Amino acid sequence: MDYQNRAGSKFGGGGVADRSATNADRRERLRKLALESIDLDKDPYFFKNHVGSFECRLCLTVHQNDGSYLAHTQGRKHQTNLARRAAREEREGKQDPSSLPGAYGVQVKKQTIKIGRPGYKVTKIRDPLTHQTGLLFQIFTHEITPGVTPRVRFMSAFEQKLETPDKDYQYLIFAAEPYQSFAFKLQSKEIDRRDGQYWTWFDEDSKNFWLQIMFKTEREERFTGVPGLAPLRT
Question: By three-state DSSP, how is residue 107 classified?
């Protein structure tokens, strides 16, 4: 700490530091100490929010810069919370204490940063033989995480909480990390899941995902499984 040019001190001499200067120097020393042992990219509690500030998910504190966060990690509050978290994990048997990184470290799954919704194309189709109508989805997942395959599921209107449930509609949900999951609102008709009518395909080279669905006709929905009715064409 530089003690020169303080009020009442001689040139080259050291004056008495006030409280703010002492705290600033302490934070700088803690930051330098933390830089030697902490990698922010691997810190599960380090989070940058939407306004550019930094948060500690363990202590629920907000910091204006990474230096302030690093100094916080060396403080008593953060170290105490780490010890409490480690003790609780050990007590509940969720983690082997011998595998903890460091004295009080705990392994926490880091959430994936979402990058928005992928592009898509939807085409209406019709089977010339069965006269069934359907949809062909093409999802452009060029930034998909390596090793991840897009997933889909159908959800009834009564499962979702965003809109007033309507029995005349259902939802088709797409999920592919790191993209945000999103859904298409479809008519509430039974899906024909026979081979050739319902299929998915993911192109590993172009990173495009394809899905075809065909809706059963009104006659098929009404009379499927009725004794004496001719079986569906496969």
Answer: coil
User: 3-class DSSP state for residue 76?
Assistant: helix
Dist. CA 218–CA 206, nearest whole Å: 37
Q: Are 149 and 161 spatial neighbours (Cβ–Cβ below 8 Å)?
A: no
191-226 as b/e, with b when 16 or more CB fall inside 10 Å? bbeeeebeeeebeeeebbbebbbbbbbeebeeeeee
Tell me what pLDDT residue 71 has. 79
The Cα-based distances of 142 to 73, 74, 117 in angstroms read 37, 41, 11
- In one letter, which amino acid is 153? R
Question: What's the Cα-to-Cα distance from 134 to each of 123, 130, 153, 199, 210, rounded to whole Å?
Answer: 9, 11, 16, 12, 14
Sequence-ordered list of residues with C-beta below 8 angstroms from that of 160, at least 6 positions apart, any chain: 171, 183
Residue found by looking up tokens 């202590």 in the block: 59
Residue 216 in tokens: 């059963």
Q: What is the DSSP letter of 115?
A: -
Q: pTM of the entire structure? A: 0.47
As a residue count, the chain comes to 234
Tell me how far apart the alpha carbons of residues 65 and 60 are, in angstroms, rounded to a whole number: 15
* 54-58: long-range pairs with CB below 8 Å, 24+: 58/82, 58/85
CA 97 centroid distance within chain:
27
Both structure tokens of 174: 């797409």
Is residue 232 within 8 Å of residue 196, measured between CB atoms? Answer: no
What digits encode the pLDDT tens for the residues 93-145? 755 444 444 444 444 555 567 788 889 999 999 988 888 899 999 999 998 88
